[in-house]
Design goal:
There is one protein chain. The protein is built from 8 helices and 13 strands. The strands form 4 sheets. A 5-stranded parallel beta sheet has the order 2-1-3-6-7, with helices on both faces. It has a 4-stranded antiparallel beta sheet with strand order 8-9-10-11, with no helix packed on it. Strands 4-5 form a two-stranded antiparallel sheet.
Length: 219
């Protein structure tokens, strides 16, 4: 997924960025709400991690504005505000989850996965696709019962297809899912990852629509 992290605590922000990048996600990290608005206007994000106390304003009005204009991007609040009334306010403003600082980074990874699965319409973390058994929570794949080792990038790419079964994804859309702003992406990076996925999971796992993009193959 491509994730927007809005957090002004540099120590926590760096830890969160490294954690979700290690999970295979692309992450853009900003420390101000005005920069967050620019980022959301310039790219399609799959999820937002939102602090509530930012240098140029409060996160709740920002979230309410987001929902008010019809933006349904999943949002997880990350905050030190731990009162029940704070949680209720955040959820009522349109947050999908609420995580109180300090939190365990592994728990954050699990909550990101849980929210993502709900938005794809399949909350079950284990999916069967032909000879493949995919555990999206554990980020693991078995083919004909045997485990298949995927790199973080390979998993992120494959999960992008699993999240949108039957949907054609262009090369540029896939690059957006895998890489943050200002990342250097070689012209054949997507093709290389798809070739490796086909070798590991089967040639039929991803279909190519020449000149248009790629889609998850039929099971």
């Amino acid at each position: 997924m491509r994730i927007l992290l809005i957090e002004d605590d540099t120590t926590l922000g760096a830890a969160v960025r490294d954690q979700i990048a290690a999970d295979g996600h692309s992450v853009d990290w900003v420390i101000r709400l005005d920069t967050a608005r620019d980022a959301l206007a310039g790219a399609a994000f799959d999820l937002v991690l939102l602090d509530l106390m930012l240098p140029d304003g409060l996160g709740l009005p920002f979230l309410k504005s987001l929902r008010g204009r019809g933006d349904v991007t999943p949002v997880i609040i990350l905050t030190a505000l731990d009162q029940v009334s704070d949680r209720i306010g955040g959820l009522n403003a349109g947050a999908d989850d609420y995580l109180v600082k300090p939190f365990d980074l592994a728990e954050l990874s699990a909550r990101i996965g849980s929210v993502a699965r709900r938005y794809t319409g399949n909350p079950n973390p284990v999916i069967t696709h032909g000879p493949l058994e995919i555990d999206r929570a554990a980020r693991s794949v078995r083919r004909n019962g045997k485990p298949v080792a995927l790199t973080a990038r390979e998993w992120a790419l494959f999960d992008a297809f699993m999240a949108r079964p039957g949907q054609l994804l262009s090369k540029s859309q896939l690059e957006e899912k895998l890489y943050a702003f200002n990342s250097e992406v070689e012209s054949n990076t997507i093709e290389v990852h798809i070739s490796r996925l086909r070798k590991k999971l089967g040639t039929e796992v991803i279909d190519t629509e020449r000149g248009l993009g790629y889609r998850l193959g039929s099971p």
